[in-house]
TrEMBL record:
This is Enoyl reductase (ER) domain-containing protein. GO terms for cellular component: cytoplasm. Its cofactor is Zn(2+). Signal peptide: none annotated. InterPro entries: ADH-like_C, ADH-like_N, ER, GroES-like_sf, NAD(P)-bd_dom_sf. Residues 13-350 form the Enoyl reductase (ER) domain. The lineage of its organism: Eukaryota, Fungi, Dikarya, Ascomycota, Pezizomycotina. Keywords: Metal-binding, NAD, Oxidoreductase, Zinc.
């Protein structure tokens, strides 16, 4: 039996995929009931991610109807019987995995940063279980993160996936302060956060993007060098080597599809490329792997422990997600039009509950 200190409605609005490759539908559905390890979160902000387009296209074979958005923030309004670390009223960034099995090697192993890889979990919100584009959402207390008072709901929603993903990507480079990281796709929703995280960790940053908007956004965050990725590969390599003593970047993070070969070419011998983008195939010339010993490493979202570290980093360094807010779940078509125009800077988000946005100003939320 879940614990709640407020009277909850029986129904809510939800933005759902009811047919693949078709428009979203705004429907009225029952408010979900949290299980023993769950939180019921009143959604403040739901963020749009590339993964949402994949869900809508049927790539993940989600069971329909599927409520959209796996990036959400809001306030806890009910907690499950086994939840001890959260209470009603807590401001949170929703965890994406639901109900990890607790028994597999990733759940029980010594590497805390692998817990998000549990393959026997109960699904992922907004992908295979109901998502954040609704008035309420179920989130697992074991994968959800409390917000510092200084972090806003507007920033926290995109941080749930974009932030967690690129924060872990920067960690996966294993670079030390003063070393060079190149971020390929630096001016997107993940890229502008990656720049800020890398800067907070003391890294020198090479920003590469192939859009005017992306290059401008990268510049806003004070990178060391900006390179237009639309140039010939040889010219990009030349510019990177000109600032790295002829060696190339110590590591590269790939955030844009089909740029892995470029990322390898601008990385120094024996360097590491962290692959975040998800094209159907990752193609790299063999000589980069064999003769230059470039190592490729994949990454997923941050673990619960890394997510807490990320929030501390955000609060300490004033890191903020650039958002493009749309007011109301019924504005989804306007959001999609903006995203598809490729003119967007940062992340597109839907403000589901403006009252929560106003209320957090009283506690000093600003990042």
């Amino acid at each position: 039996m879940a614990t709640s200190t407020t009277s909850l409605p029986s129904e809510m609005r939800a933005l759902q995929v009811t047919k693949f490759n078709a428009p979203y539908e705004l429907r009225t559905i029952p408010v979900p009931v949290p299980g023993p390890q769950d939180l019921l979160v009143k959604v403040a902000v739901a963020s749009y991610c590339h993964t949402d387009s994949m869900v809508a296209a049927g790539i993940f074979k989600s069971k329909l109807p599927q409520t959209a958005s796996h990036e959400g923030s809001g306030t806890v309004v009910a907690v499950g019987d086994c939840v001890s670390l959260f209470k009603v009223g807590d401001r949170v960034m929703c965890g994406i995995p639901l109900h990890p099995c607790g028994e597999c090697e990733d759940c029980t192993g010594p590497i805390e940063g692998h817990r998000q890889y549990c393959a026997r979990n109960g699904g992922h919100i907004g992908v295979t279980t109901q998502g954040c584009a609704a008035d309420f959402v179920i989130a697992d207390a074991r994968t959800t993160t409390k917000l510092p008072d200084s972090v806003t709901f507007l920033s926290a929603a995109p941080l749930a996936c974009a932030g967690r993903t690129v924060y872990r990507a920067v960690l996966q480079t294993q670079l030390r302060p003063g070393q060079w990281v190149s971020i390929v796709g630096s001016g997107g929703g993940l890229g502008h956060l990656g720049i800020q995280f890398a800067r907070a960790m003391g890294l020198k940053i090479i920003a590469i993007d192939a859009r005017d908007e992306g290059l401008a956004l990268s510049k806003d965050y004070g990178v060391d060098i900006i390179v237009d990725g639309r140039q010939e590969k040889a010219e990009v390599v030349k510019k990177v080597q000109s600032v790295t003593g002829g060696k190339g970047a110590d590591s590269a993070i790939v955030l844009a599809d089909h740029t892995e070969a470029l990322a390898a070419a601008i990385t120094k011998m024996h360097g590491t490329v962290v692959q975040v983008a998800q094209p159907d195939n990752v193609s790299v010339p063999f000589h980069e792997l064999i003769f230059r010993d470039i190592r490729f490493k994949g990454t997923l979202v941050a673990s619960p422990e890394e997510s807490k570290e990320m929030m501390q980093c955000i609060a300490q360094h004033g890191i903020k997600a650039r958002t493009n807010p749309f007011h109301g779940l019924d504005k989804i078509e306007d959001l999609l039009s903006t995203v598809k125009s490729a003119k967007i800077k940062g992340k597109a988000v839907i403000i589901v509950d403006p009252e929560q946005i106003e209320a957090e100003k009283r506690i000093g939320a600003k990042f």
